[in-house]
Amino acid sequence: MTRGSRSERAASLDEADPLTTFRHRFVRADDVVAYLDGNSLGRPLAETSARLARFVGETWGGRLIRGWDEGWMEEPVRLGDELGRVVLGAGPGQTVVGDSTSVLLYKAVRAAVALAPSRTEVVFAAGDFPTDRFVLQGVAAELGLTLVPIETPHDGGVDPDRVAAAVGPDTAAVVLSHVAYRSAFVTDVAAATAAAHAAGAAVVWDLSHSVGALPVHLDDWDVDLAVGCSYKYLSGGPGAPAFLFARRDLLPRLHQPIQGWMGADQPFAMGERYAPDPGIRRFLSGTPSIVAMRPIRDMLEVIDEAGVDAIRAKSERLTAFAVELVDELLTPLGVRLASPRDPAMRGSHVTTDHAAFPAMLPALHRDGIVPDFRRPDGLRLGLAPLSTSFAEVEAGVLAIRDALRRTG
Amino acid sequence: MTRGSRSERAASLDEADPLTTFRHRFVRADDVVAYLDGNSLGRPLAETSARLARFVGETWGGRLIRGWDEGWMEEPVRLGDELGRVVLGAGPGQTVVGDSTSVLLYKAVRAAVALAPSRTEVVFAAGDFPTDRFVLQGVAAELGLTLVPIETPHDGGVDPDRVAAAVGPDTAAVVLSHVAYRSAFVTDVAAATAAAHAAGAAVVWDLSHSVGALPVHLDDWDVDLAVGCSYKYLSGGPGAPAFLFARRDLLPRLHQPIQGWMGADQPFAMGERYAPDPGIRRFLSGTPSIVAMRPIRDMLEVIDEAGVDAIRAKSERLTAFAVELVDELLTPLGVRLASPRDPAMRGSHVTTDHAAFPAMLPALHRDGIVPDFRRPDGLRLGLAPLSTSFAEVEAGVLAIRDALRRTG
Asked: What average pLDDT does the structure give for chain B?
């Protein structure tokens, strides 16, 4: 394909995109031609800037301490319920916002393994994101549990068959990611959960790389516990608070060890002994940041308006276009596609490997192309469906091609 | 004193106050005559509103993922060092910002008791803030430790003598608050720390009710670990991230159980095994909220400009004026002062008890008087030195007097 006809193709895809106008709601960076890292840090919505300023001046500054009685106290659960409704497929009273993903994962895993104190093993994916593995190593060390890795040929992705093969009567919990952080391989959550349940084990899912880009149906999938971050496709901002989901019928039996007042049954009773809230609030500990939750709320409104199914459809078109361009422009130069070819098995990013990539990053940044880098030599093209255009995908892959040619 | 001469007194105190102009840097709430709860939630600085908006639009939106390489990655420690320099009396490399106070207290206590695995007791103040007691109950339950309470006749405050009497060869750690949340009683940190050290125990201080209002000298006081919140006198906003301090020479031996990637030696190595950062970063777990840290930074600049000693001097004058007015106006109506009379033993709030207080709160709020309420029947007048005027103190106590008269 010639450069001209390719650009026409990108332009016509953008024109035909039913979500194309959503792009203009996000802040644009002047020096960025193609932002391909929305899966690491989502662009902010333009309205978030003014809304946050108003929150400081009018709500925090105007309502002061009264704000806690006027909504902030409920905000971690109210926002959790909204996450449940809009992006998690979870009924109310099962999701709470606060802490970081790592801290919530720690709480979720501690709660999960405590359900079966006589079981001694935790099954996990060998290629999972470091923080997931590190948290598990810490929990295993303090509780004397054995970690059982599932091999992950798909660069971190897990087949449900391998879950079934790894679990057994000693398995207390299975901890997995819905979408693999490196390859974007999508694990079948329902099937993997069923495999864990068949062995009597609880499951904890990390949704960090799927939430907001792929449909999630936690209730239908019979998931026990899940956590996820909000600064990727949920545009919560750098280090925005994470969320935790716990199945309603399990809640009374779930106990996490960080007993803070915000998770107590009656926070203002100032009582003698800690008694956990009967519901999902028991997963809170200290006071969660209300300021940091505001951008998530803004983005959820926009996702709700667009609809997760439409977002997923665009995500598949974006990654398919990226794969097509990789095949045409990069494979001849020795680049290897590290993501699944089947769009149904692929999340919202496309990873390609080449030994020359690490050295190329500064030049790409200078040209306004911002992909993500993952060791040892992967460029991860994160395509945030609501803010990324087909033209950006094209500009990004072309720039990578040109940079590779220069190095070669 | 007549109402007129009393008002003249308040006005002349405000006029003579060397910090009087600082008040105008904070957002004013139109319907609030006297905000006496800056010790629960500090007023925002007016400039924080615009700065936060600019951060979203220009830094998050403009720099996008590049922001992590351009300062965000270092921000938890950079801001920690600033806290150390301006308000904690701590040299660099010992303070980090992130998580909530409860989560950081959990980490600090777990790290402290792990220093002496053969010791079986944790000493704490019976009247301490619930989250402190609750966190300790959780740690004690999971590790099989015994909690040893120190009685607190001063409504939560602790005499160093009682610490010396409570510690022994089985004491792993002593966990105390610098300023008692209810009475504002100030504990002598250096003396209590020395008493703990004499028994070979580590100390963990909660500075939530002192930081930003009282001088703190963690290095000089030989403190092992400390935590504190930033939404009171540090004006960080509702649920702003907390801080943790750990003594430099102890750091290599301190281990906390929530092993996330942000606390790892090389976060982007994506390695097989977790190895903690050699320094204070080992107390981080997940990605801390950069957005939520910004207001703290703004307030630290202002505190640095005013100087902690000048702030403490005004705090003493404010609480002395409050005590004087309580004596004159409220004691005759049966109100009991629950805070120390000696300004040196008193933090920056004044608590008064009366059985009629709980029922009076709505009327006070309607009149624009916003004090804090603490069970069973305490009105806590929090006097944030940089944002509270003597006129506010007077208006508050007069309104309480009037409300009491109406009920009586």
From this structure: 95
CATH number at residue B351: 3.90.1150.10
A291 and A335 share one domain: no
Q: Is residue A57 part of a domain?
A: no
Distance, C-alpha A207 to centroid of its chain: 5
B202-206/B171-177 β-pairing: parallel
CB contact under 8 Å between A41 and B257, yes or no, is: no
CA distance B5 to chain A (A): 31
CB A186 within 8 A of CB A210: yes
d(CA A66, CA B347): 23
Confidence (pLDDT) at A408: 65
Q: Which of the residues of B are catalytic?
A: 129, 206, 231-232, 380
Question: Residue A252: helix, strand or coil by DSSP?
Answer: helix
Give the number of domains in chain B: 2
> How far is Cα A253 from Cα A244, in angstroms, rounded to an integer?
16
**Tokens representing residue B98 in the block:** 């992130």
Q: Is the pLDDT score of B326 beyond 70?
A: yes
Residues 6+ apart with CB under 8 A from B180: B125, B127, B128, B152, B154, B155, B156, B157, B158, B187, B209, B347
Cross-strand pairs, A370: A35
How far is residue B248's CA from residue B219's CA, in Å, rounded to a whole number? 9
Which chain B residues touch A365 with a CB distance below 8 Å?
66
Select the residue of B65, B241, B242 nearest A372 (Cβ to Cβ): B65
Report the alpha-carbon distance of residue A28 to residue B283 in Å, rounded: 35
Q: What is the DSSP string of B294-352?
A: HHHHHHHHHHHHH-HHHHHHHHHHHHHHHHHHIIIIIGGGT-EE-S-SSGGGB-SEEEE
Catalytic annotation, residues of A: 129, 206, 231-232, 380
End-to-end C-alpha distance for chain B, whole angstroms = 22
* B372 & B390 share domain: yes
Inter-chain touch B290–A237, beta carbons under 8 Å: yes
In a domain, B36, yes or no: yes
Using CA coordinates, name the residue in chain A closest to B273: A134
**Are the beta carbons of B292 and A292 separated by less than 8 Å?**
yes
Question: What pLDDT sits at residue B156?
Answer: 67
Q: What is the pLDDT of residues A345-401, one digit of tens each?
A: 999 999 999 999 999 999 999 999 999 988 889 999 999 999 999 999 999 999 999
Q: pLDDT per residue over B90-107, tens digit each?
A: 999 999 999 999 999 999
Sheet containing strand B336-337, strands side by side: B336-337, B349-353, B378-382, B372-374
Cα→Cα distances A214→A208, A311, B380, B404, Å:
11, 7, 49, 59
Which burial class, exposed, middle or buried, applies to B186 when counting CB atoms under 10 A from its CB (0-12, 13-18, 19+)? buried
CA atoms within 13 A on the CB side of B144: 4
State the CB neighbour count (10 A cutoff) for residue A5.
8
Q: What angle do CA A205, A208, A212 make, to 5 degrees?
A: 110
Of B241, B270, B374, the CB nearest to A375: B270
Q: Which of A291, A299, A349 to mutate to test the interface with B (most CBs of B within 10 A)?
A: A291
CA nearest to B132 within chain A? A260
Between B118 and B2, where is the model more confident?
B118
Q: Of the candidates B325, B321, B318, B320, which has an alpha carbon nearest to the alpha carbon of residue B3?
A: B325
Residue A11 is part of which domain span?
3-46+307-407
What is the residue type of A316? E
Q: Which residues of chain A have a CB within 8 Å of the CB of B130?
A: 261, 264, 267, 270-271, 274
Is B103 close to A99, i.e. CB distance below 8 A? yes
ipTM above 0.95, yes or no: yes
Residue B101 shares a structural domain with residue B227? yes
Per CB-CB distance under 8 Å, the chain B contacts of A48 are 56
Question: Which one of A37, A56, A99, A374 makes the best mutation probe of the B interface by having the most chain B beta carbons within 10 Å?
Answer: A56
Q: Number of A:B CB contacts under 8 A?
A: 290
